[in-house]
Amino acid sequence: MATPIALTIAGSDSSGGAGIQADLKAFAALGVYGASVITALTAQNTTGVSGIHAVPAEFVTAQIDAVFSDLDIGAVKIGMVAEPPVIDAIVAGLRRWSPKHVVLDPVMVATSGDRLLVPEAVEALRTKLVPLASVITPNLPEAAALLDEPVAADEAAVQKQGRRLLAMGCKAVLIKGGHGEGAKSIDYLIDADHSLALAAPRVATRNTHGTGCSLSSAIAAGLARGEDMETAVSNAKAWVTAAIAAADRFSVGHGHGPIHHFHKFY
């Protein structure tokens, strides 16, 4: 039986809670072999980002070609892409290798509030990467930033923004409600045919570092295992909710600590 393999193309988080490190933990926790292409190094911990060092675009290309030429990649997750040349390299790589599933997490701002994307990169993300995505997974502020609109304040506004994001060319949009208010965190999965609301109890913890990275990776893991989009998203949402609920078992750092990727195991 073929081993399900997922690839993360993202930045490295030196504190281990988000980025490439979170992605590989999510893949492993969900029974999928993980490979990685690193787009940037960050000097960061649970309190914030103190430095970003971009990987040259040609070396991103070398990593992509090395992985795809050897491994049977079932799904790709794309996270932090700091600069336009790196986005161009990823777009060219995706066109060259045509992976079946692409999950794009448009990471613009860290949990700590630090900006991770230069303004020119936002436009490249919109016009070049979004159209290649099977699903994009913005949170409420990221959806608003992609559209140059205020943050959606109610379900009708979320649905409207979801439709506008679909018009950018992706096949589906998952707008995450973690930044919203109320007892439940509601995510909306929107595609050309229908919309699905996925509700989970809002967990009271400050240990949410890497939540978005881990959710998008969990979706990619499900797709790599052969699940359909709705199943992959539903399972990923349930898993990440449990990982947040278990986060306080950890005592890591002095800021927003990590979620517990391996909550099923220890």
Write a structural description.
With 266 residues, this protein is α/β, with parallel strands linked by helices. It has a single domain (5-249), classed as Ribokinase (UDP-N-acetylmuramoyl-L-alanine:D-glutamate ligase, 3-Layer(aba) Sandwich), CATH 3.40.1190.20. It contains 8 helices and 9 strands. The protein has helices at 19-29, 57-68, 84-97, 119-129, 140-147, 155-166, 211-224, 229-245, and strands at residues 5-13, 33-45, 48-54, 75-78, 102-104, 135-136, 172-175, 184-191, 195-201. A 6-stranded mixed beta sheet has the order 3-2-1-4-5-6. Strand 7 and strand 8 form a beta hairpin. Helix 3 packs parallel to helix 4 and helix 7 runs antiparallel to helix 8. The longest helix is centred in the last third of the chain and has 17 residues, at 229-245. The chain is globular, with a radius of gyration of 17 Å. The two termini are 28 Å apart.
CATH architecture tag: 3-Layer(aba) Sandwich
- What distance lies between the first and last C-alpha atoms, to the nearest angstrom? 28 Å
Q: Tell me which oligomeric state these chains represent.
A: single chain
Can you tell me the residue ranges where pLDDT is under 50 for at least 5 consecutive residues? none
Mean pLDDT: 91
CATH superfamily: Ribokinase
